[in-house]
Amino acid sequence: MNKSSPCRVRVQHEGGDRWVVLALALQADAEEGRFIDYSAHFACQMDGLDEPASNYTLKNWESGILSGAYFAFRKQRKAPIRFLVSELRGRLRAEEMEILALASTIAVSLLLGSEKSDCQIAGWTYKTEIVGQAAALST
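Predicted structure:
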């Protein structure tokens, strides 16, 4: 598989105070069991909004990204491939890790060829863009 353009997903709570932005691109077959890499300019900019989340490191947030990505690969019956994360920022509580997984599921699904993800969580909306393309999807 050739490299894909990055897909940026913004998931926002209806109250507006909690949100996440994730941008990732598919790279190639996984090398040595490593499925996730980070761009040279990547910086994790996540604000944990409760005590557990305020102590999270990139490895904690990474678990949500991987969970959503693996779900998307399974749902589309595709073998997991390596992907590159170029952006991760937002404001979430520890109990909202599923929102980061949702963003990852949406991005990987779109990059694998789905026109639109059917994944939704009540009270949350999302917008997507393939970086370099004008068209964006949203719910």
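Summary: The first strand starts at residue 7 and ends at 13.
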